[in-house]
Amino acid sequence: MTGKFITFEGPDGAGKTTVMNNVVEKISSLLGDRLLVTREPGGNKISEQIRNVILDRKNTEMDARTEALLYSAARRQHLVETIIPALNAGKLVLCDRYVDSSVAYQGSGRQIGMDEVYQMNRFATEDLLPFKTIYFDIPVQVGLDRIAAHRSKDAVDRLDVEAVSFHERVHDGYLKVAKNNQERFVMIDATKPLSEVIESTISVIKTEAQEFFKE
Ligand SMILES: Nc1ncnc2c1ncn2[C@@H]1O[C@H](COP(=O)(O)OP(=O)(O)O)[C@@H](O)[C@H]1O
Ligand SMILES: Cc1cn([C@H]2C[C@H](O)[C@@H](COP(=O)(O)OP(=O)(O)O)O2)c(=O)[nH]c1=O
């Protein structure tokens, strides 16, 4: 594999999606088709179908392990169908969420156990981890307030409506994963103004994937 795999992670409302869109706008003219931007859960037909089942607010009876299995199933399909072919073609792959999301949300948030969820994801991914993970850190309430202020009621999904204590456990989970993977994680303060967060993110990408930005 000659490409490079970088993921974006963080609690809900950290700004990952907004930052990703802005970063792509700024670097896509430099990289052209050497850039692939994708997101989880989703990114292809089967994974988007699984996403709809997971995030449907009507699916109130979903068991925590069922949820974890569905996320990892969607991840597997996305990896095989989208990420690995792009890496084999030498591309820079930027992905909004990956294994660390499951470890934080299902492992810590749903209290299934971070290591158990990680082990299940090792099976799903055959141990393919990102080269770097840009982690957007934000206090839980700030992220939730951003979502409440900006999203329409219809756009709020099953995980957005979880109790604050769930989101606190997700945040704690992320901090543990970051601490245990310091060589892979780059932490960005997502409470800063959007323009600063975008600049910091571009700077990390240009440093960590500098081979893509050479003339
Ligand atoms: N740095 C920032 N400062 C203030 N508001 C922000 C910032 N980053 C994102 N937002 C706003 O917060 C909301 C949630 O951002 P979003 O990108 O959807 O977060 P995520 O994908 O991490 O859940 C959006 O309405 C966005 O405009
Ligand atoms: C990939 C992944 C996402 N999630 C959650 C995080 C989000 O609340 C939701 C994804 O919804 P999405 O609308 O993509 O949220 P965001 O813009 O915050 O990334 O799914 C998990 O619980 N486990 C996972 O493995």
UniProtKB/TrEMBL annotation:
CDD domains: TMPK. GO terms for cellular component: cytosol. It catalyses: dTMP + ATP = dTDP + ADP. One of its GO terms (molecular function) is ATP binding. Signal peptide: none annotated. ATP binds at residues 10-17. It holds the Pfam family Thymidylate_kin. Its EC number is 2.7.4.9. Keywords: ATP-binding, Kinase, Nucleotide biosynthesis, Nucleotide-binding, Transferase. Residues 8-198 form the Thymidylate kinase-like domain. One of its GO terms (biological process) is dUDP biosynthetic process. Phosphorylation of dTMP to form dTDP in both de novo and salvage pathways of dTTP synthesis. Belongs to the thymidylate kinase family. HAMAP family: Thymidylate_kinase. This is Thymidylate kinase. It comes from Lentilactobacillus curieae.
